[in-house]
Write a structure and sequence with these properties.
By secondary structure, the protein is an alpha/beta fold. Helices cover about 40% and strands about 10% of the residues. It has helices at about 20-25, 40-45, 45-55, 100-110, 115-120, 135-150, 160-170, 195-210, 225-240, 260-275, 290, 355-360, 370-390, 395-410, 420-430; strands at about 10-15, 35, 60, 75-80, 95-100, 220-225, 245-250, 280, 300, 325-330, 335. A hairpin with a 4-residue loop joins strand 10 (about 325-330) and strand 11. Helix 9 packs parallel to helix 10 (about 260-275) and helix 10 packs across helix 15. The longest helix has 20 residues, at about 370-390. The radius of gyration is 22 Å and the shape is globular. It starts with 9 loop residues before the first strand and ends with a helix. The structure holds zinc ion. Zinc ion binds next to helix 12 and helix 13.
Length: about 425
């Protein structure tokens, strides 16, 4: 499927290892597209192909290549004690790691192979010099492009009838194939010590990717707020030279409760990048992404009520059991249901009340279960996005944030809400 048709901001949900299939299907109209991590796409390829085929929404596959240049422990599974099932710790108290995670072995051995398989075998991270050989870089790009183009693009048999239907309606679909909305070149962090060398590598991989596909190419720019702010002009001009069709931005470890300096750095970077007039999609973003709409952000992704921030040095897929949380739209924050929401008498806060279908059925957020709280999140987010699409102005958005801050800053049950004032001040700084 091509890029979303609707105006921004686009909402993407990331497919995780959690049981969310039904939510993705039932609330198909509450989001614009799906992001599938490469290792999930390869490990559960049959499931993902069917699932993505049935959704008929724009999607992209995140190649996850940054992991191969990071701490090799990130790719390894924890070692568990056979009797207790507990993770074994070494003498320094660090959780012990064993061999390659099963979810990555298929990706490494069957799909990426070559250079990636070599460094995994040597138990070392990729370094910029690994890409100095033309053939190694070209082979990796070829494999990453092939993987994203083919893996989930075969429409399962039972959905072929939709294809015929779509054709009769005059909607273009290419030969039963359901290609991703864009191809993502292999990418690596621009936040470490060797920023210039990795920048060269990333841009080179982008150029090579463009040469290998006719689909739109969106590189990932991965760096923390500080690196983005220091190198903004350099990053923006270097990537622009390679003429990508759009950008994916991953602000490493960034979340909206950080200080005004970090918020302003991210806002400024998006603003600068948006001058290119290309779509910009944040790979991981929380409600601050709504603020970034006013900087020119086209869309943002996250898990359904989780993974709204991500540190590239963090272990993948070990979010663990996240206690169910309730998203309070007016305050742009989540509260834990078991510990926080149950203490609040929401009937005393009429302006916090949500009139989505879930909350209509169960008006007390303290009674929502995990699936219900996620479904509420999707519907509440949809409403926020619709308001922006309807033309909420920068001033009106900022005023609403400031008013919510003033009203709730001293409420013992709902504070802290300092982020609201910070966001408003970022919007006020023209
Ligand atoms: Zn609701």
């Amino acid at each position: 499927m091509p890029l979303p048709n609707d105006p921004g901001p686009w909402c993407f949900y990331r497919l995780g290892p959690t049981k969310e299939k039904e939510l993705f299907k039932r609330r198909r109209d509450a989001y614009d597209g799906v992001i599938v991590p490469a290792h999930i796409a390869s490990y559960y390829s049959a499931f993902c192909a069917e699932f993505i085929g049935s959704l008929q929404k724009p999607y992209l596959i995140d190649p996850m290549t940054y992991l191969f240049a990071g701490d090799t422990a990130l790719l390894k599974r924890f070692v568990r004690d056979r009797k207790t099932g507990r993770t074994i710790r070494d003498t320094t108290g660090r959780k012990k790691k064993g061999d390659l995670k099963r979810s990555f072995s298929k990706l490494v051995e069957q799909h990426y192979a070559g250079l990636v398989e070599t460094v995994v075998g040597e138990d070392r991270p990729l370094i910029p010099q690994d890409f100095s050989a033309n053939t190694a870089a070209d082979e990796l790009v070829g494999r990453v492009v092939e993987f994203q183009t083919r893996l989930l693009s075969e429409l399962p048999e039972k959905y072929r009838k939709y294809e015929q239907y779509a054709r009769k309606q005059g909607k273009p679909m290419t030969g039963g194939a359901n290609p991703p909305m864009c191809i993502v070149p292999p990418y690596f962090s621009l936040g470490g010590s060797d920023v210039p060398a990795w920048l060269e590598v990333n841009v080179d991989l982008l150029v090579r990717t463009k040469a290998k596909t006719t689909l739109p190419v969106f590189p990932v720019i991965l760096a923390g707020p500080q690196s983005l702010s220091l190198n903004a002009a350099l990053f923006i001009s270097k990537y622009a030279e390679a003429k990508p069709d759009g950008y994916l931005l991953w602000v490493d470890g960034f979340s909206s409760d950080q200080d005004v300096g970090a918020l302003a750095a991210v806002f400024g970077f998006v603003e600068g990048l948006a001058k290119s007039d290309k779509p910009i999609i944040l790979l991981y973003g929380d409600a601050f992404s709504l603020v970034l709409h006013f900087a020119g952000l086209s869309g943002f992704g996250c898990g359904i009520c989780y993974a709204e921030r991500k540190l590239s040095t963090q272990d993948v897929d070990v979010e663990g059991m996240i206690p169910p949380r309730y998203y309070v739209s007016l305050l742009k924050k989540k509260i834990q249901i078991a510990t926080e929401a149950r203490r609040i008498d929401f009937s005393k806060y009429p302006d916090l009340r949500c009139d989505c279908e879930v909350c209509g059925r169960k008006p007390d957020p303290g009674t929502l279960d995990d699936t219900e709280s996620r479904e509420h999140f999707m519907l509440a987010r949809k409403r926020e996005i619709d308001a922006l699409r309807g033309g909420t102005t920068r001033v009106a958005f900022s005023t609403a944030l400031q008013e919510a801050f003033t009203k709730y800053q001293t409420d013992p049950l709902l504070s802290p809400v300092q982020h609201l004032r910070n966001w408003a001040s970022v919007l006020a700084n023209e």
